[in-house]
Write a structure and sequence with these properties.
Structural class: mainly alpha
Largest sheet: none
Distance between the termini: 54 Å
Radius of gyration: 18 Å
Number of helices: 10
Length: 182
Amino acid sequence: MLQHALSSLILKKGYESITVQDICDAANVGRSTFYAHYTSKDDLKRKGFEKLRKLLVDRQKEALAAAAADNKDRSLGFSLAMFEHARDHVDRYRALVGGRGGAVSLGSISRILSDLVRNELAATAGKKSADVIPREFIVHYVVGAYMAVLTWWLDGGARLPPQRIDAMFRRLATAGILPSDT
């Protein structure tokens, strides 16, 4: 109820002007109930990303399993699901951009994506390259590029279909992170 109330309020009045009392009123719960579960509206917002995390983890597992079965590259298997999610919630993105709510949201998404990239790199650690690049360097490279592309795409109205933006991103990103044959 609290997550739904926050989402509705973001669309109506923007994240910055929302108070904990506004959220409680919209959800028809008391402040003590709110504070029994969350420390602030930022905490509520961050924890709201757990559903997204689960979706992206599931997509990544499916992609890694498919890659093992057919020996095709399925790197960054979470990418399309994230682009689709962002397109489906572009109205919330616009309501969040520019303020602290955007920083909370983008920071949460960056942490989720960093975990996913780390997991994928750990799962494919057996594929060695002659030029070893530190794992955290790769994580920051991929997530930074992804967030830049995601922001550019959404700021431009998400005109390209998610499948196209995903294909372009993955083409550029995987060339930089897949082990070379040398």
